[in-house]
Amino acid sequence: MMAVASAPAKVILFGEHFVVHGNPALLAAINKRISVTAGTIEAEKIVIRSDIGAAGEYSGRVFKVLRGGKRARVLIDPIHDAARRALGSRDRDGGIEIDLCSEIPYGIGLGSSAASCVATVGAVGSLLGRHDRRWICERAVESERMIHKNSSGADCYISTFGGLIRYGRKEGYKKIESRESLSIVIGNTGIKHNTGEMVAGVAKFKARKPKVFQELMTRADEICSDAASALESGELERLGLLMNENQLLLQQIGVSNKKVDELVRACSAAGALGAKITGAGGGGSVIALAANEKESARLAESIRQAGCDPIEAQIDYKGLVV
Ligand code: PMV
Predict the structure, then answer these.
(1) Tens digit of pLDDT for each residue in 236-248?
(2) Global pTM value
(3) Does the N-terminal or the C-terminal CB of the chain have fewer CB atoms within 10 Å?
(4) From 195, 256, 257, mutation site for ligand 1 pocket: most ligand atoms within 8 A of C-beta
């Protein structure tokens, strides 16, 4: 038996980091995907191969690297965990073989780890006849917590359900209907970040300056609500200004850096309506909002001239496809 699932990458439009501490965030799934093929095999093992250069096999508690040296295990352990969670405790003979193929660079804030966990649970779950998206998402969130234990769960939600959502740890998720189509250009600084370390850095900032952090949370919350209504009413210019303001908050909590600031400035100078970090920061990616598709190509060119890789993205409304 064989199943194929794919799940989209994402951008966080507003509220990253603050979402870990209970605020809402606005997210959009984008049309770049990770595909997972899962097949049953006779041998009692789980074999995982990823096109980012890592492969290994698990026989009970024993792990054997097949490709990628020492870093292989760190990269594929969450996939193994996702597969195990999908399999549950049911007794079954034989094993599973899993192949991942990604259109998303990893470690740059586009949610590649969440999308791999969602697609893995989706593919393996489908071999057992499980297709319930909520069931899949819950398991993927747990596996993503192997990568950074304080994950808000936002990335797995958007990757599973697609579209545009407002997400909060307590409030759950709510779909947002955008009146205008969004032309988003992503600029990859090429600097990989470790989300767990970035999140821990913000927790330290909060512990050192609780009052300041609380004020920033309050403003981030207001920005999110304003942005949701700007999306619903199609006010792209207002949305852009709110993105710029959100970026100032991210600078204050210490997740921006010189390269990111330069890229944000380059996007603004090239006519972006707004620009900010997306995801954990510390490098990673910047998103810029273009006024229309023509402007989007111009923005992509100025991102290239700033020495970064542009990705022109559209919103993905499909989410997980099995
Ligand atoms: O950089 P990414 O794609 O791992 O996104 C992290 C988003 C954070 O808000 C910083 C963490 C989280 O769990 O929501």
Answers:
(1) 999 999 999 999 9
(2) 0.90
(3) N
(4) 195
